[in-house]
Each structure stands twice: as C-alpha cells, then as structure tokens.
Design a protein that fits this description.
mainly alpha
C-alpha cells in the first residue's frame, strides 16, 4: 500500500501547519509567561527542531520580534541589551578585582620577604629594634651619670662644709 504523491504532499503540508501552530502557541505562552525567548527555547517548547523555525521565515521573524518586546509591564523587563550591559559591567568589575588581588599579593609577598630576611639574621635588623636598643643603652648611661652626679654633689657639699669649718677655725686662731 503506497501513498500517492499528492496524498504525501498533503500530509506534509498538514504536518508543517500543525508544527507551525505549535510554534506560535508556544511563542504566545512563553511571551505571556515572561520567559526568555530564543529560537532554541521556543523549539523545545513546541517540540520541533530549531531548523524548522529557521526554515520558515514567518516563524523566525515572530521569534525575533518577541525577543525585542518586553515580556510584560508587570514583570521586570530584561532585554538582551541590558544583559549584555550587565555582562560587560561584570567583566570590568572582574578585571578590577583581579588587579586589586594582584596588587595585594605583591604587597603581601614583599612584606613576607622582608620579614623572612630580617628573621633569618642575614639582613639588617629591624630599625625600630635598633632604636629601642639604643634607647635602653642611653637610659642606663643616664642612670649611671645621675648616680655620679649625686655622688659628686654629696662630695661638693662635704667639701664646702669642711671648707667652712676650716675657715671658721682659721678665723678664730687669727682673731686671738
């Protein structure tokens, strides 16, 4: 049992019309729902191959027009242009963060290198540690000099007292 060529053509035409109707219905449903509209998503919803939509200019044009229109005024309209702008902004932010991370890595590396160099004893000691050591030495020296000054002051007071006593004694012996 073979089909006649006209019957086969009629069957194909009817099948194409049914699939075209399914694509239009899927497109209408996706537009009403506010879904993201692409040729692939419409083809998947209509259970047809993407090439079917591409082969029929009227269906392909309908999909492209639906992509350009905002989904619904009540829903947040997300267009392809806004998504591209968001993507470009995220790429720029990613580049800025990568530069900042690189800068922080270099700073950390330098700080750790200096610390390791000083800790190993190979490098010069920390300047603040040298200053602290010098301050301690000077404080010790100051205490030593203060003790010497007090000792000299005591000797000076004793010498003055002895000088006064001798002058008093000398004045008494000359006065007699």
């Amino acid at each position: 049992m073979t089909a006649t060529p006209s019957a086969l053509g009629a069957f194909r035409t009817a099948d194409t019309a049914r699939r075209g109707d399914r694509v239009r219905q899927a497109l209408a449903a996706m537009t009403a729902a506010g879904n993201d509209i692409t040729v692939s998503s419409v083809a998947r919803a209509a259970r047809v191959h993407r090439s079917f939509i591409h082969r029929h200019p009227d269906l392909h044009t309908a999909v492209q027009e639906a992509q350009r229109k905002p989904a619904s005024p009540t829903l947040t309209a997300v267009s392809a242009a806004s998504l591209h702008a968001d993507l470009a902004n995220l790429h720029a932010q990613n580049a800025r963060l990568a530069r900042q991370i690189k800068t922080l890595e270099h700073r950390l590396s330098d700080a750790l290198g200096i610390q390791a160099y000083q800790t190993s004893g190979i490098g010069a000691p920390d300047p603040s540690a040298q200053l602290q050591q010098r301050v301690l030495e000077l404080e010790q020296h100051l205490l030593h000099l203060t003790a010497q000054l007090e000792e000299c002051t005591d000797e000076l007071h004793a010498a003055r007292a002895a000088n006064r006593d001798l002058m008093t004694l000398l004045n008494r012996t000359h006065a007699r």
